[in-house]
Amino acid sequence: VTGPIFSCNVYVSAGSNIEPVKHLRMACEVLTEAYGPLTTSSVYCNPAVGFVGDDFLNMVVGFNTNASPQSIHDFLKQVNHRAGRPLNGPGYVSRTLDLDLLLYGDRVIESDDLRVPREDIKNYGFVLGPLAEIAPDLRHPSNGHTMAELWDAFDHDRHPLTRLVISPL
């Protein structure tokens, strides 16, 4: 006998500064194949953070799933690797694809290799801005503020974003 299967809303950030349109499209295709229909933010352009490099294109996608947070995290790492990113490469470098699990419902998870909600939500405009676009009323599991409230209070000058029109993504 198995217990009930619960599904929840999941949010994933996607970024690239090496052939970014190609890699963001590929990420959306792979995530749709794995998890079904996606809610997608606009694509945003922003300068590299933490190193000198080409600008990044970033977006956030949301989907509903009953997959475990660890299985999603592991899947995202595999997709990053298939796109040409080393499994344990350095942090602040140019990359073909960077997919990260941001939120898994209202769960707070802290393990050796998985922290949800991801700190990037509060730290980077290129994560928070797209997330606030597609889920403005979603509450941050740790502090209770909505994504719109967090975005309104964010220092936009520190991480400038430019919304792009890229279709179809």
Automatic annotation (TrEMBL):
Which protein, by its recorded name, is this?
Answer: 2-amino-4-hydroxy-6-hydroxymethyldihydropteridine diphosphokinase
Tell me what organism the protein belongs to. Answer: marine metagenome
User: Which Enzyme Commission number(s) are on file for it?
Assistant: 2.7.6.3
Classification via InterPro entries:
Hppk (IPR000550), Hppk_sf (IPR035907)
Q: Keyword check for Kinase, yes or no.
A: yes
Q: Where is the 7,8-dihydro-6-hydroxymethylpterin-pyrophosphokinase domain?
A: 11-136
Q: Which GO terms describe its molecular function?
A: 2-amino-4-hydroxy-6-hydroxymethyldihydropteridine diphosphokinase activity; ATP binding; kinase activity
- Lineage in the entry? unclassified sequences, metagenomes, ecological metagenomes
Any Pfam family: HPPK
What metabolic or biological pathway is this protein involved in?
A: Cofactor biosynthesis; tetrahydrofolate biosynthesis; 2-amino-4-hydroxy-6-hydroxymethyl-7,8-dihydropteridine diphosphate from 7,8-dihydroneopterin triphosphate: step 4/4
Keywords, comma-separated and alphabetical? ATP-binding, Folate biosynthesis, Kinase, Nucleotide-binding, Transferase
Give the top-level enzyme category: transferase
